[in-house]
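Project outcomes to date are best conveyed with an example. Our students and postdoctoral researchers have been running inverse folding experiments weekly, and each run begins with a structure described purely in tokens. The record below, which covers 339 residues, was selected by the lab manager from last quarter's runs and is presented without edits.
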């Protein structure tokens, strides 16, 4: 195994993504993964596929395995460098589940009941409101705290979970003495919540039933352009960022994230031009950005041996960081030392 090349002077970044579905969404990319990539040059980074979290909703085992490998290959295709950063599967490091148990024993039923994602998901999966769905945020806190992460790059929908992780850490520190780092969220100012192309009041999500609502990062150029052409807008014909123009605001946000232009620059660029022109420009810009990712994904997914080498090493590196945390936590809570 190559040595963990983390510098002692750099802060630690950690984030995970669920492997549900065939591919990541444009929301995942803009809200999280594109930032994961950028942060690698300045920080020590740990990035993973949250397969333990994925089974909080029903999964077909063969599909989950396939999707998890695709998610790992997608993560690398998006620029995560398995030499520089730790890139691993959550289930390959037992410390996550072990720490989750300990933290769960001081997390209150009331605080977990307030999690909006739990409420949403239990409404959506009313026939499977399992204990894992309820304690999901404790596992997420364990993911973060096991590495003593300083910063967690996420979209806005995960902010409440991060706040809970901070509370859990604070409570532990109060009881057992300062130990866990309090993690800060790293949420992009633009693109913190990419909305559905078919209903701009809803988050873009891979579980949306309408296939035109969501762009997947592995969609081909024609598909991307077609979905943007069909995006819901409004009855005006002016490209302008304003209240009540959710559809256009969302497209402007996406365009801004990919071109670096601010809203007034985009308004000038499309002044006097209709929505058709604007939608085509957004579609082409997004498709051009996604093309090299798709090509790299196709190369990687056919090289299973290389992927295995990367995730095996990723798991070893992840364990080398978290094993010390677990041993100290077990000692602090009063377990007899194993050695
Ligand atoms: P997940 O898999 O739902 O999403 C992965 C990341 O993508 C962001 N995201 C979005 N950002 C902007 N607009 C959207 N429409 C959009 N949809 C998703 C999410 O905020 C997230 O950052 N519980 C987490 C995974 C997780 C995790 C962790 C994250 C497990 N352990 C530890 C951080 C740290 C989740 O389900 O994300």
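After processing, the design step wrote out the following sequence:
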């Amino acid at each position: 195994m190559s040595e963990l090349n983390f510098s002692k002077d750099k802060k630690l970044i950690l984030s995970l993504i669920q492997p549900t579905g065939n591919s990541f969404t444009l929301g995942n990319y803009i809200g999280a993964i594109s930032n994961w990539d950028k942060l690698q040059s300045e920080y020590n980074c740990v990035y993973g596929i949250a397969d333990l979290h994925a089974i909080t909703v029903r999964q077909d085992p063969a599909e989950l395995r396939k999707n998890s490998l695709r998610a790992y290959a997608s993560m690398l295709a998006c620029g995560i460098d398995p030499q520089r950063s730790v890139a691993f599967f959550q289930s390959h490091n037992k410390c996550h589940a072990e720490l989750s148990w300990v933290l769960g024993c001081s997390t209150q039923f009331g605080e977990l009941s307030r999690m909006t994602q739990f409420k949403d998901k239990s409404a959506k999966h009313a026939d499977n409101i399992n204990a894992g769905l309820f304690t999901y945020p404790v596992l997420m806190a364990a993911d973060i705290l096991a590495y003593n992460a300083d910063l967690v790059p996420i979209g806005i929908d995960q902010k409440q979970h991060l706040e809970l992780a901070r509370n859990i850490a604070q409570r532990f520190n109060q009881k057992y003495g300062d130990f866990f780092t309090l993690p800060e969220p790293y949420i992009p100012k633009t693109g913190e919540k990419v909305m559905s192309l078919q209903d701009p009041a809803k988050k873009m999500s891979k579980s949306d039933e309408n296939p035109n609502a969501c762009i997947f990062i592995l969609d081909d150029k024609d598909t991307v352009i077609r979905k943007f052409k069909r995006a819901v807008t409004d009855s005006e014909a002016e490209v302008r960022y304003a209240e009540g123009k959710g559809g256009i605001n969302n497209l402007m946000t996406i365009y801004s994230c990919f071109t670096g232009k601010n809203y007034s620059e985009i308004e000038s660029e499309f002044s006097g031009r209709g929505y058709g022109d604007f939608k085509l420009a957004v579609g082409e810009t997004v498709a051009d950005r996604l093309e090299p990712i798709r090509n790299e994904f196709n190369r990687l997914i056919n090289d299973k041996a290389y992927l295995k080498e990367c995730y095996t090493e990723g798991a070893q590196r992840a364990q080398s960081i978290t094993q010390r945390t677990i041993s100290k936590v077990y000692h602090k809570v009063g377990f007899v030392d194993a050695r």
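Residues 14-18, 27-28, 30-32, 50, 53, 140, 143-144, 152, 154-155, 157-158, 193-194, 203-204 surround tryptophanyl-5'AMP (CB under 6 Å). DSSP finds 13 helices and five strands in the chain. The training component of this project remains on track.
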